[in-house]
Amino acid sequence: CPACRRPADLRDLLPAVLPRRRGSAPGPFFSGQGCAACRGSGARVLEPVLELMTAFPGEPLAPAGASARDLRERHVAGGMDTLFLAGLRKASAGTLDVREPLRLLLYEQP
């Protein structure tokens, strides 16, 4: 929410035990505090964060026998953004609370 967002330092929010992620987006980052304009949520609109997997040219999207983890690792190595990176990019653009990408890390654990 533009009315209640405050600057946030990503280094303060990321615990040192988390692995470094490739291609982290530049700041500045903000965190919504909640106010009357956003009804206490910290955001006026919901912003989708997507991890989009497409097929490699000439190959099926999901080769026979490949696990979900294998597919994801292969596509990330090929340049696909993870949920975390997609969220971090939106947070750096100011359209998403910087704490949201941290919540998305729960879906990236092996």
Descriptive notes:
It is a single chain. By secondary structure, the chain is of the alpha+beta class. The chain has four helices and two strands; from the N terminus they run βαβααα. It has helices spanning 10-13, 68-77, 83-92, 99-104; strands spanning 5-8, 29-32. The chain has a two-stranded antiparallel sheet.
Largest sheet properties: 2 strands, antiparallel
Structural class: alpha+beta
The secondary-structure element order is EHEHHH
The chain-level mean pLDDT equals 79
| Spatial gap, N to C terminus | 33 Å
Indicate the low-confidence ranges by residue numbers: none
Shape: elongated
β-strand percent reads: 5-15%
| Number of strand segments | 2
As laid out across the biggest beta sheet, the strand order is 1-2
Bin the helical content: 25-40%
Please give the radius of gyration in angstroms. Answer: 16 Å
Helix count equals 4
Question: Main traits of this protein?
Answer:
single chain, 110 residues, two-stranded antiparallel ribbon
Brief rundown of the structure:
The chain has 110 residues and is an alpha+beta fold.
Q: Would you spell out the secondary-structure blueprint of this structure?
A:
Layout (H helix, E strand, L loop, with lengths): L4 E4 L1 H4 L15 E4 L35 H10 L5 H10 L6 H6 L6
